[in-house]
Structure formats: structure tokens, C-alpha cells
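User:
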Amino acid sequence: MEKKLLSGTCELEVKYTFKKVRSKSSDVRGVISQIGEISHFDLSVPIISFKAGDKDFDQHLQSVTELTADPVASASGLCPWSVFEADKSSCEAQIHFHGVTKTYLIQLEKKGSRAFFILDLDAHNINRPSLLGIKIKNEVLIQCELNWT
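Assistant: Predicted structure:
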């Protein structure tokens, strides 16, 4: 059995000490393949597709993630198929971002139609941007809304 991503969004939320900035992409692609009781999933999103509604922030995000060197962020992993049949579950995923792959625990809701985790910028060698000399927090909330066929 295979589920393809019909549509999806991915939102990242960075925090300064005095404000939050959200940037969103509607260009998420993905597939879940079932082999027996095991599923393999792959998701990807081009970094350039994230938009915050603030041109300066968007350009800064593209600059610090070195867009030309590694233009796509991705998530992949193996987990029991039952994870995608439960209202709440979790699974590990290998997140590839900024040329670095790290394992994260992904929280899933609504049979895999919602996913979220906290990305560690330092672990991915990101030079954290600053505003008025104040760097963003190291932890970035990543939330995805996924519509599977």
C-alpha cells in the first residue's frame, strides 16, 4: 500500500526574546509506503518556498541556510504502519537540513495528518540570525499539516 501526499503545508516558528516569526510553505511533497506492518516515509520541502510575509526575513532565512548549497529540507524514516492509523503517536525521523542529518522524535496526530517537532539550529550548523543584535532562539518549532490520498 502507498499513500501519496495530496497537499501539505509546513510552518516554522522562530522566536526572538520579544517576538515570534512564522514562515510557511505549501510546497511539501511526500509518500508513505507500506511493506507488511512497516511503513517507510519520505517528505521534502524546498527552503525557498518558505514565506513569512516579511521580505527581509525571507531573504535572511535563505542566506543563513545556504540555499544554493542545500536547497531542500527532508524527513524520512521507518515506523510501524499503525503509527499512521492512530489519533496520537510518534516516530523517529531522519531530518536533513543545511547539509546535516539528525534524528528527531516526531509527534503525529490525526493519523499522520499533523506532525510537529523542535528543530535544533545548532545541531544543523546554522548561524542563528539576529534582530537588533538579539539572536533567535536555538529551538525552532516545525509543524506540518498533511493531506494523504
